[in-house]
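User: quick one - fold this with 2-acetamido-2-deoxy-beta-D-glucopyranose bound?
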Amino acid sequence: MMIKARSNQWLRHTLLCVFIFLKLGSTSQEGMTIIEGAVAKGAVCLDGSPPAYQFDAGFGDGLQNWLVHIQGGGWCNSVQDCLSRTYNRFGSSMKMMSSDYNFTGIMSNKRELNPNFYNWNRVVMRYCDGSSFTGDVEAVDPATNLHFRGARVFDVIVEELLSKGMKFASNALLSGASAGGLASILHCDKFRTFFPANTRVKCFSDAGYFAHVKDLSGGYKFEEYYNQVVTLHGSLKNLHPQCTSKMKPSLCFYPQFVMPYITTPIFILQTTYDTFQVQNILAAPLADPRGLFTNCKQDINACSSAQIRRLRDFRSGFLRAFLNVRHGSSRGWFVNNCFTHGQSEPQAKWLGNRSSKLKRTTIAQAVGDWFYDRSTVKMSDRRHVLPQNCIN
Ligand SMILES: *[C@@H]1O[C@H](CO)[C@@H](O)[C@H](O)[C@H]1NC(C)=O
Ligand SMILES: *[C@@H]1O[C@H](CO)[C@@H](O)[C@H](O)[C@H]1NC(C)=O
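Assistant: Sure. C-alpha cells for the protein plus 2-acetamido-2-deoxy-beta-D-glucopyranose:
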C-alpha cells in the first residue's frame, strides 16, 4: 500500500515537472524550483510535499541585489481547513503551476514598470503552509498526514537562495503581500541574521498590517481566529520573543504588537480601508451575524451614511494601531485610503498612469526612495478620509 502511494506520488510529481518544463518552454522565465532536499529536513508543505520558489535572474547593475517576495493566501485555523489546502496550490507544491504567480508590479523585470527593482534577482516564495510561515510541529498525525512546518520552509528557501548566490548580495529586500506581507514583518529580523553586516537588508510589507481593532460585535473575533492558527501550527517559538514574553502568542501575530521590537528597517504599504480587513475583521460573519454589512463590505457605493461612519471609525482605529507604534527613522510607509487589498503586485496599483499617489509620489517610487535612503518616506493620506475606489 505504502509503496504504491509513494510511486503514485512520484509519477504525479514527474508529470508535473514535465508539464512545468513544457510550459516554461513558452514563457521562458520565472521557472519554478522544487527543493526536493528539504523533505529530509522535514521542511515541507502542509501535505508533506517539498517547498517551491520561482526565480527570475537579475541583470546589469542589479546582479548583486535580491528581492525575496512571500506570496499571500490567508491562513488555515483547523485540521479541516488545512486539509482542504492540500488539494490546492496553497498547501501542496504538487498542485502549483508557475502561472499561478505572475511577475508583475514589484516583481516586473521591466524598468518602466518597476524602476527600482526590475533588474534584481527576484524570487517568489510559494506559500504552502497557511501560517505565514510560522508553524513548526514535529509530530505528524498519520490520519491526516498534515505537516505544520512553515517556519522550516521559510528557512530552507532562504538557505537555498544564499547558496545560489544571495550570500554575496549587496542589497536584499524581504517583501510580501497579504499573509505574505505579514510574514515579511514577522520574519524581518530573522531574515537579517542570514546576511553579513555590510549587506543592506530591509523588509517591505504590502497589505500585511492586519490590525487588532474592535469589530462590529464590539469584540475581537479575529483574535480568536489567530489564536487557533498559532495553536494549530505551533507558531509560538517562531514569533518575536520580546513580544511573546509580554503577551499572548495570538497577539504577537499582530504587527502593532511586534513592530516595537523589530530593528531591521521596514516599510509598510497599507490602505486604512483594506478590503480583506473590512470583510474579515470588522465585518466578519461572526462579528456581523445579522449580515448588516453584507452589501456595504463588498461595494462602498452600497454603504449607508451610518455604515460609512462605522468604516471611518475603523480607519481611525487602524491609524491608532499603526501610528501609536514608535517608528524609528529607518521605517517608511505609504498609507492611503483605497478600498482594495494588495498594491505591490498588480501592475496598475504599483506603477501605472492611474496609480494612487501621495505627495505626487507613486507607490513604486516611494518604496524605491525609502530603500535607497534617497528621502524619508512616511506618507499617509490625511486629505481623504472616506474610502476611495482607486483601481480595481
Ligand atoms: C498569469 O498569467 C497567465 C497568462 O496570462 C494567466 O493565465 C493566469 O491566470 C495568471 N495568473 C494569475 C494568478 O493571475
Ligand atoms: C494610461 O495608459 C494606457 C495604456 O498604456 C493608455 O492607453 C492611456 O491612454 C493612459 N492614460 C492616460 C491618462 O495617460
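One thing worth noting: Residues 17-380 form a domain with the Rossmann fold fold (CATH 3.40.50.1820).
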